[in-house]
Amino acid sequence: MTREGETKAMFRIHIRGSIEAVWRxxxxxxxxxxxxxxxxxxxxxxxxxxxLAMRTPNGKYTGVVGEILELVPLRRFAYTFKFTNFxxxxxxxxIDLAEKDGGxxxxxxxxxxxxxxxxxxxxxxxxxxxxxxxKHVIEDGRPSFGTRMLFTLFKLMEPFSPxxxxxxxxxxx
Amino acid sequence: xxxxxxxxxxxxxxxxxxxxxxxxLVQAPGTSVKALASHFDFSRIAALxxxxxxxxxxxxxxxxxxxxxxxxxxxxxxxxxxxRWTDQFGAFFAARMTEVKQRVEARASEKKHA
Lengths: 173, 114
Hints:
The structure holds 2 protein chains of 2 kinds.
Chain A: E1 7-15, H1 19-27, E2 40-43, E3 51-55, E4 62-72, E5 76-83, E6 91-100, E7 103-113, H2 118-140, H3 145-157
Antiparallel strand pairs in A: 1-7, 2-3, 3-4, 4-5, 5-6, 6-7
Chain B: H1 6-13, H2 16-27, E1 31-32, H3 33-37, H4 44-56, E2 60-65, E3 68-73, H5 76-85, H6 88-113
Helix pairs in contact in B: 1-4
């Protein structure tokens, strides 16, 4: 078991690409990150201890907030993760990269999840999509057709987001 | 060639004990090797061999916590196989069909045990 009352999940995928390209993709702040549900990462500074927010591409809404726990270039990016529309406690996400077999081994570990919460359900379902989308983006240059359709749906649903998710409530600085 | 080799994934899934191991890890992520092996009649050595097959296929990931090795199910290789033959529309309708099957069978099971 993991720690009592908590659950943990691990997702791993091999990506044919350079470790620099994968690192750039998961830490970019200049454009939406397809692997992270096409959200734009907002940080005052990409450094340990800084707040981060995952916002819609136009910046109006914020789906996730957290704090950077570890940032080891080309190796590890770890942060706390909390959905803004749920009252669940934050969990932790750690992304580890390693060069392997001419590509990159991408491992995402989600820990301190409270079983039975909406956050736990979303995170456990989302892990596979995140890993697969990142692979498609690095190897093919863009997400799969189905994932692109999902992003279109997100855009259409954006006006129905709860008021509590408005970015003005979730500053990073 | 895909990584891991899909042959390794199919081989890993072809054994009932290994499928049961995945079931147990889905139910209890982070189970230790010892605890997982206790669910089976065969020896711990045999359990380790089965786990090695699952790990080679990328279906089981492990993490050291002190002296204990914790095991986790990695669903990604199965998703990759799923994507190979299933487009988004097929996936949508297939998912609806399996939902109906599960609901009907669950109701039938409830009635049987009532």
